[in-house]
Amino acid sequence: MDDQQHSGALSPSRDAALSRPDFPFARVARRLGIDPALAEVALRDDERARGAVAEAVQAFLTADDDHRAGRPPSSAIASDPDFPTGVGMALVGAAVLWDARDLVPRVALRVAKDHFEDGADELAASYAALVQESVDPGEDSRDDAVAWAAQSLLVSILQRSGSPARAEEIARDLAAHAIPIDLWRDDDPSLPDDSMAWHGGAFVGGIPPRRDERSLSYEDVHDYMNSLLAQTQREQQAEGEGTGG
Fold first, then answer.
1. How many helices and strands, by DSSP H and E, does the chain display?
2. How many Cβ atoms from other residues are within 10 Å of residue 166's Cβ?
3. Is residue 122 within 8 Å of 158, Cβ to Cβ?
4. Sign, CA torsion 113/221/123/157
5. Cα 163 to chain centroid, rounded
6. CA distances to 42, 147, 161, 173, 206 from 215, in Å
7. Handedness of CA 206, 209, 214, 216 (dihedral sign)
8. What is the rounded CA–CA span in Å between residue 135 and residue 103?
9. Please, are residues 184 and 124 in contact by the beta-carbon 8 Å criterion?
10. Is the pTM of this model over 0.85?
11. Which residues 6+ apart lie within 8 Å of 230 measured at CB?
């Protein structure tokens, strides 16, 4: 019961989002590899939509691996003009919207890294925090590794844009748990044999990832995804009107 309540508290209202008159069903469907002609029916089918999100996330991770390694993309998702960062952000939003919490951490970490490398430290910290909010400590070693990678990224973020003292505090915590300080640089992080499970960030007491001291909540991602897609829809409509004129 507690787990169900916890999950419900984190998840935005899918019905409310899909009931919005400006919700861009066709755009979302295309991004998830669903036939736009079947968009509304498919996206209202939770099981089908979650399956599509899972497939799109896997395609994204494969294409992003190719991108980071300098290889030709092996997935069509790489042809999206918003790839990789914008596509990753949209997929995080979709995973949140359809309660696919387990799909959030790996994609959100990639997005956080992209933002950091682009110099957008507040967004990077927010997505790093979202990675950690999506991981249940000690449940899965792979998720633990991703959460620790996000923690190591926070050290670099704080060194550049935040508090050096806080960065040093986190760095000491990483060392105490046998976590490499540059773990975030690995595309598919894994933990050394002598490392310890992710502790949920309790040691640092909840690092405020943005200067306004608010982490990026699931509701924030939900709202961002909808505003992003609504903006895209308006741009497409404007282009269509311009062509028609």
1. 11, 0
2. 16
3. no
4. negative
5. 24
6. 32, 15, 16, 21, 9
7. negative
8. 10
9. no
10. no
11. 22, 23, 24
Q: Which of 138, 139, 76, 142 is nearest to 109 (CA)?
A: 142
45: Cα within 13 Å, side-chain hemisphere: 11
- Residue identified by tokens 């909010």 is 133
Q: How many CB atoms lie within 10 A of CB 5?
A: 9
Burial of 210-225, coded b for 16+ CB within 10 Å and e otherwise, reads eeeeebbbbebbbebb
Q: Do the Cβ atoms of 149 and 189 come closer than 8 Å?
A: yes
Sorting pLDDT into bands at 50, 70 and 90, what band is 48?
very high
Write down the pLDDT at residue 198: 86
Looking up tokens 């997935």 gives 75
Tokens 């979709």 sit at which residue? 94
Enumerate the H helices of 139-185 as residue ranges.
141-161, 164-176
What type of residue is 140?
Answer: D
The tokens for 137 are 């400590």
What does the pLDDT look like over 54-90, one tens digit per residue? Answer: 999 999 999 999 999 999 988 899 999 999 999 999 9
Q: Are 148 and 201 in contact (CB under 8 A)?
A: no
- Looking at per-residue pLDDT, the higher value among 139 and 35 belongs to 35
The pLDDT score that the predictor gives to residue 11 is: 44
